[in-house]
TrEMBL record:
Keywords: ATP-binding, Cell inner membrane, Cell membrane, Membrane, Nucleotide-binding, Transport. InterPro entries: AAA+_ATPase (IPR003593), ABC_transporter-like_ATP-bd (IPR003439), ABC_transporter-like_CS (IPR017871), ABC_transporter_ATP-binding (IPR050763), P-loop_NTPase (IPR027417). PROSITE patterns: ABC_TRANSPORTER_1 (PS00211), ABC_TRANSPORTER_2 (PS50893). It comes from the Bacteria. Pfam families: ABC_tran (PF00005). The keyword Ribosomal protein does not apply. One of its GO terms (molecular function) is ATP binding. The keyword DNA repair does not apply. Residues 5-234 form the ABC transporter domain. This is ABC-2 type transport system ATP-binding protein.
Length: 311
C-alpha cells in the first residue's frame, strides 16, 4: 500500500520547556481513514498543525507524497486540506466567494462546476449567496470543510470536524467523508465522538502526553485489547461461588443472582462452554444469559488511563 504521508521523529518543545510531541513517527497510506484519538492536550492538534506547516517542529521530518513540508512547502501543502477545530471564516463574505477565494489561494484555476459540486454535497448550495455571519454553527462548519476541499487535496485533515454539530449534520458529513474515501482521498481525523471512529476508521492511533502509544488496524485493535463478557442470571441466588468456579475473570454479584465471566479474546481461557459445564455439574441453573464485547471507547479509556503501556 502506497505511503502518502510520512512522519519521522517529530518533536515539539516550546520555549517554556513543555514537550508537546515526543518522537512521533507514523506512515499514512493512500485512501485510508486514520483516526487519531487522545485526551485534550495530548498533542493531536499540534501534530496536525506541524504536518500542515502551521507550526514548526523542533526536530523531525514530514513528507507529503515524498515532498518535504519545510523545504518543499508549496508542493507539499498543495496536497493537503485542513478543517481546523476553531471556526475561522470571513463573516461578511458570501459562502460562494469565500470557497472560491480559498481555491485561488492555492493557485488553482477557476472551476465553478467543482465549487458547485462541493456546496451541493455539503448541503450548502441554497446558502451560496448568504453571508457567513448569517449561518448557524453547523453550517459554518460545513463552509470550513468546503474551503478545505476547494483546491482538490489528496489528503484531508479533520480536526474535531463535528464538534458542536447536530446529529443530522454530523451524519451528512460522514456520508461526505465516505464518498471522499471512495475517490481516493486520504483522511486523517481527530474526534471526541469515539463511536464515529469505531464506525469509520480503518486504523486507530492513540496519543498520550505527546507520545504515540499505539497504532493498529481498528479490527485488530479491538481483537487484541477488547474484552468479552458473559453474564448469567441465576434462577436462585447463591451465597458464594463453588470451588470449581474460583477462576480468573469469574465473579458473583452482591445479591448472588449474577455470575459474570470476563475474558480476553486473545488469551488462553477456559471458554464459555466450560463455564456452562461447571454450572451444570454444580446444579446451578440460570434463566438468562447474554454476552458483550468492549467498545473502542472502553479500549481508549483503558489506554489513556494506564500509567505504563507495553506495545
Amino acid at each position: 500500500m502506497k505511503t502518502v504521508l510520512s512522519i519521522s521523529g517529530i518533536n515539539k518543545t516550546y520555549q517554556s520547556g513543555f514537550a508537546a510531541l515526543k518522537d512521533i513517527s507514523l506512515d499514512i497510506h493512500t485512501g485510508e481513514i486514520f483516526a487519531l484519538l487522545g485526551q485534550n492536550g495530548a498533542g493531536k492538534t499540534t501534530l496536525i498543525n506541524i504536518i500542515c506547516g502551521i507550526v514548526k517542529a523542533s526536530s523531525g521530518v514530514v513528507k507529503v507524497f515524498g515532498k518535504d513540508n519545510v523545504h518543499e512547502y508549496r508542493e507539499a501543502r498543495s496536497e493537503v486540506g485542513l478543517v481546523p477545530q476553531e471556526l475561522s471564516t470571513d463573516s461578511f463574505e458570501t459562502v460562494w466567494n469565500t470557497v472560491t477565494f480559498s481555491r485561488g489561494l492555492f493557485g488553482k484555476p477557476k472551476n465553478p462546476a467543482y465549487i458547485e459540486q462541493i456546496l451541493k454535497q455539503l448541503s450548502l448550495w441554497e446558502k451560496r449567496n448568504n453571508k457567513i455571519m448569517t449561518l448557524s454553527g453547523g453550517m459554518k462548519r460545513r463552509v470550513m470543510i468546503a474551503k478545505a476541499l476547494s483546491h482538490e487535496p489528496k489528503i484531508l485533515f479533520l480536526d474535531e470536524p463535528t464538534a458542536g454539530v447536530d446529529v443530522s449534520l454530523r451524519k451528512d458529513m460522514w456520508e461526505l467523508v465516505r464518498g471522499l474515501q471512495k475517490t481516493g482521498v486520504t483522511i486523517i481525523l481527530t474526534t471526541h465522538y469515539i463511536e464515529e471512529a469505531e464506525e469509520m476508521a480503518d486504523r486507530i492511533g492513540v496519543i498520550r502526553q505527546g507520545k504515540l502509544i499505539l497504532v493498529e488496524p481498528k479490527v485488530e485493535l479491538m481483537q487484541q485489547l477488547g474484552k468479552k463478557q458473559l453474564t448469567l442470571q441465576l434462577h436462585q441466588p447463591i451465597s458464594q461461588l463453588p470451588q470449581s468456579l474460583l477462576l480468573d475473570g469469574v465473579s458473583l454479584s452482591g445479591d448472588g443472582l449474577l455470575i459474570t465471566y470476563t475474558y480476553d479474546s486473545q488469551s488462553k481461557n477456559i471458554g464459555i462452554a466450560k463455564i456452562l459445564e461447571i454450572l451444570a455439574s454444580e446444579n446451578i441453573t440460570f434463566k438468562d444469559l447474554h454476552t458483550s464485547q468492549s467498545s473502542l471507547e472502553d479500549i481508549f479509556v483503558s489506554l489513556v488511563n494506564e500509567k505504563e503501556l507495553t506495545v
